[in-house]
Design goal:
Elements (H helix, E strand, L loop, with lengths): L2 H13 L1 H25 L9 H40 L1
Helix pairs in contact: 1-3, 2-3
């Protein structure tokens, strides 16, 4: 892990796991993917795309964002701990 990424992760880490997962996973991944999927790909004004379809799509993308957020949190945390151990050994 590079120094900039290490410092950036330390700052993100200080804000908390749940905040990171919600903001980076759900808001920055799930919502944009829902908008892209529901309004650009499926074109809700066409016949056959109902409110129920839109609600299902929202649920799926919010869950996907949650999974992405959890995955990136633990991946970054693993890299951070390895880098912290390396820094500790160097001193």
């Amino acid at each position: 892990m590079k120094d900039k990424k290490y410092a950036a992760w330390a700052a993100s880490r200080a804000k908390g796991r749940n905040n990171y997962i919600f903001f980076n996973g759900v808001l920055l991944y799930g919502i944009p993917m829902f908008i892209f999927s529901a309004f650009i790909i499926n074109r809700p004004l066409e016949e056959g795309y109902t409110f129920i379809n839109m609600a299902q799509s929202l649920g799926i993308w919010l869950f996907a964002g949650l999974v992405i957020g959890v995955n990136t949190w633990f991946s970054n945390e693993r890299q951070y701990r390895k880098a912290a151990e390396a820094i500790e050994k160097a001193h």
